């Protein structure tokens, strides 16, 4: 990031670089963007190594559609589009607005907020009792927006995590400061590699919209299995609780657990992820609203 460090102006606003633009963006008022695209399918460039992440560049317009639109992934830069290093948007979360700086594009697809972030935030607010007193780890944090929201809303003990990439970590730190938070703990981790923390003690692992790279499902499950099966939380953070599902029924659950939401339609490939979970000895339960509970048997 060229040695950039964030700062604040006298009026309290975060100072923007010349290549940044401040945009007020609201999820409820997002409209369909009609732009030409050379392809409707992901263009992935494979790299060597079992845990290397594929590269994909996504347009902002491709991520947000009206409810009636087919929710397909639109990939590639539109012809003649003007590139920006960053864009800063004000996003509406339950009970607050957050100023989030996003990359205009990022080779690891950690550039923009995904639709599942907002719906998952709503779901977590409805089930906030499960967060009390728990240590939380977010996988695939991207911009860090969801973790920042949870920290500000509920003062939770939360750690962000994403691919081993300096720019991602620095951008999450920037977004923390932009929203008057101390920088959250962060873990750089490539799925499938040895996890940097040998004795994981997070009670809840969360993620939203991370099922993009089908080839990475086995590596994601490998990481997830380690965190859940090697959990060494304190005795006060073990035991059972209950989550209210979509029908209003109280579902008994135990710690540690993985809660995942996603809003991207990825055809039938999502089944492959759950098959990998079951092969690894993990239980999968749909809680409704495209939120899934995954835990050890």
From TrEMBL:
Superkingdom of the organism of origin: Eukaryota
PANTHER family: HEPATOCELLULAR CARCINOMA-ASSOCIATED ANTIGEN (PTHR14614), S-ADENOSYL-L-METHIONINE-DEPENDENT METHYLTRANSFERASES SUPERFAMILY PROTEIN (PTHR14614:SF97)
Pfam families referenced in this protein's UniProt entry, alphabetically: Methyltransf_16
Protein name: Uncharacterized protein
Residue spans of biased composition, Low complexity class: 30-39
InterPro entries, alphabetized: Methyltransf_16, SAM-dependent_MTases_sf
Ranges in coiled-coil conformation: none
Phylogenetic placement of the source organism: Eukaryota, Viridiplantae, Streptophyta, Embryophyta, Tracheophyta
Region of interest called Disordered, as start-end residue ranges on this chain: 30-49
Recorded name of the encoding gene: LOC102717228
